[in-house]
Amino acid sequence: MIERVSSAPKVPYATTLLVRDCCLCLHVQRAARTLARRFDEALRPFNLTNGQFSLMMSLNRPQPAGMASVAALLAVDRTTLTAALKPLERRGLIKVMADPADRRSRLLALTDEGADLLERAVPTWEKTHQEVEAGLPDGDPDRLRKNLIALS
């Protein structure tokens, strides 16, 4: 027999169903986790997660990037970014260096090895991305992108 903790729900069960069916936050989180798993699997042959791929891609620029700009692009705090950088730095894929203009600040850059790995991984990302877009029920990835950007 299942023992109930409280005598009656304080929030009607109909509200639970409404949240389940309508909550944008819940549905975006579920979609994000599903997409993350799909891209993690696709990028596994490169020993990268989707987050690591995105982080490395954010460093794919002509000049080293400041931590604040990368954290803002990836919508993470600096502590989370610092933790995410460590395994990539240990693998020699990125370099973290002092900013010559302000020794307290750090600049981030891809190493040659990191750029090579990114170059090999991009076709897999492109293929997976095309498959995801093709699977959208309304066939309009640009509309979805615009709506997600508006929410972020």
UniProtKB/TrEMBL annotation:
<dbReference type="InterPro" id="IPR036388">
    <property type="entry name" value="WH-like_DNA-bd_sf"/>
</dbReference>
<dbReference type="Pfam" id="PF01047">
    <property type="entry name" value="MarR"/>
</dbReference>
<dbReference type="GO" id="GO:0003677">
    <property type="term" value="F:DNA binding"/>
</dbReference>
<feature type="domain" description="HTH marR-type">
    <location>
        <begin position="21"/>
        <end position="152"/>
    </location>
</feature>
<dbReference type="GO" id="GO:0003700">
    <property type="term" value="F:DNA-binding transcription factor activity"/>
</dbReference>
<dbReference type="InterPro" id="IPR039422">
    <property type="entry name" value="MarR/SlyA-like"/>
</dbReference>
<dbReference type="GO" id="GO:0006950">
    <property type="term" value="P:response to stress"/>
</dbReference>
<dbReference type="InterPro" id="IPR000835">
    <property type="entry name" value="HTH_MarR-typ"/>
</dbReference>
<dbReference type="InterPro" id="IPR036390">
    <property type="entry name" value="WH_DNA-bd_sf"/>
</dbReference>
<keyword id="KW-0238">DNA-binding</keyword>
<protein>
    <submittedName>
        <fullName>DNA-binding MarR family transcriptional regulator</fullName>
    </submittedName>
</protein>
